[in-house]
Amino acid sequence: MRAAYISNWHRGRGGGIIGARTGSRETRTTMHRTGWGRAWLIAGLALLLAGPGLAADPSPQTGSAGANPSTARALVTIIGELSYRERIALPPGATLLVTLAEQSSGGDPAGPALARQSVDLAGQQVPLSFRLTAAQAKLKAGERYALRAIIQDRTGQPLWSKQSAHVINPDQPLHDLGMLWLTRAAAPAPAAAMDSPAPTLPGIPFQCGDRQVLVQARDDGLDLTLDGVTHRLERLLSASGARYGTGLPDGREILFWTKGRNARLTITGEAGLSCAQAEFPDDPAPRPGQYEASGRSPDWTLRIGPERLELVRSVTGTSQIVQIPVPERQLLADGHRYVARLSTGELRVTINPGLCLEPRTSVPFPDRVTVEMGEQVLSGCGGSAAAFLAQAEQWSVTLLNGEPVTDAGLSLRFTSQGEISGNAGCNRFMARYRADANGLTIAGRSGGSTMMACPREMMLREQAFLSALRSVQTHTVEPDGTLVLTGLDETEIRLRRVGGP
C-alpha cells in the first residue's frame, strides 16, 4: 500500500506531472518547467501526506508493517496563491484570512468553517501563498465548497477579497487551486453607485517646511503623526496659543506650538520648522442616491445604493460582508425600514430621523440607525455630518472665545455640498468645509469675502471670528441644541440654531 502512495501523481499548474518519487526523470523535467520551489513544495507535501517513512524506504511493503491508508489520508490539504492586478501596496498591519466552508444554494459560505488560516502579513506583498487543512471525514465527493479570502487593514476593514467555489475530493490528499485573483473589497456592482472614496486620515494636515504633519485633537492633548509615526503629545503651559509636547524613546523632545492656522514644530537636535495648515483637496462629487451609516461595539458600516445594500461588520476580529439587492423600502411613522431574508436569518435596517452623536468623537449626524441580524442588534448613526449642519437655515453665534456676541450679527450657513457662508459682522464671506466622523475643517483660502470698512471694534471682532473659524477642528451639539466649534489653540465658537426642521 505504501508503494501506491509513493507513485501517487499530482498535476502542477505548468501542465506537467509532478511525482512523489524524488530524482525521477519526470520530476526533474517538471521542476524545470514549473519552477524548482513550486515542484519541491508539492512533491514534499505529497510525501508528507503519504505517511511517515516513505521517503526513506520506497520499496513496496505488505502486512501490518505498512502505513494505514485511512490514517495517511485523514487530512486534505488545499494550497494556492492570491494576488491582484492593481499596483497598490498593502498597508502595514494588514492580515490575510482564508476559510473553506460548505456552499449554500446561493453560492455563499454556509455553516462553520471546515478549514481556516489567518496570517499576519508583516509587510508581505502579493502574491501571497495560503495552505488550508481540512478533515477528510467532513468532505463529500463531488461537492462544491466555498473558499473565501479577505485581506484586512489593522482596523479589520476589508481591503481585498475573493470568493470562489471548488470541488474538493476527499480521496485526493492535495488540491492546488493555482492563482486566485482578488478584487477590491466592498465595491459591489454597479461600481459608480457603490464605490467608496479612498480613505482619508483623520485630523488636520500642517505643512512644516518639506514635511507634512497630521494633527488630531484629544481632550488632554493631541496626536501628531510625523513620517508615518504617531506621537501622543500632552498639553503644556503657554502664554499664547496652544503648546504641546512629549519625550521620545531616544531622549529627544517634540514640541508643537500652534496659533490659529500657523504652528511651529521643534524636535531636539533639529532646526525648528514653521508650519501652516494645509488646505484639503476638493471633495469628490457626492455619489447620488448612496446612504451611509456606521457604529461601534462591534464596528460596522452600512451602505445603501440605488441597487445594492452592503453591510460590513467585525466579528471576532474578522470582517463579515453582506451584499444583497436593496429590499423594498417600508415607510414608518418616524422613518423607514428595509427587510431582507438571508440564508442565516432576517436582516432588518431601521432608519429614524433624529440627532445622533458619534460615540468616539461626539460629531452630530442626522439619523439614528439600527441593524438587526438574528439575535444581534447594532446601533449607530447615519446620513452625513454635513447634512446635519445643513438642516438649519443658519447658525447664529452666541459666544466667541467666551465673549457674548449676540448683538454682532455673526452667523454661519452650511450646505450639504460642502459650502459655508456667513456674516462676519462687517463683511460677508464664503468658503469650503469638510465634515465627517472625525470633525470639521474649514478651508480659509478656498473662498472670498466682501471688502467693506467698518468701525475698528467691529473689524477686530471680525478678524477674531474668521481666525477662530480657520482653526476649527472638532464640532458637537450639546443637549440644548447648541453647536460648539473648537480649535487646536483653545478657540471656541458657540452657535444656536435658527430655522430648519
From TrEMBL:
Q: Can you give the residue ranges of the C-type lysozyme inhibitor domain?
A: 206-272
- List the InterPro entries hit by this protein, alphabetically: DUF306_Meta_HslJ, HslJ-like_sf, Hsp_HslJ-like, MliC, MliC_sf, Pilotin
* The DUF306 domain, residue ranges: 392-491
Residue ranges crossing the lipid bilayer per the database entry: none
Q: Which UniProt keywords apply?
A: Lipoprotein, Membrane, Palmitate, Signal
Indicate whether Transmembrane appears among the record's keywords.
Answer: no
Note the SUPFAM superfamilies from the entry: YdhA-like
Q: Which domain of life is it from?
A: Bacteria
Region annotated Disordered sits at 280-299
Q: What protein name applies here?
A: DUF306 domain-containing protein
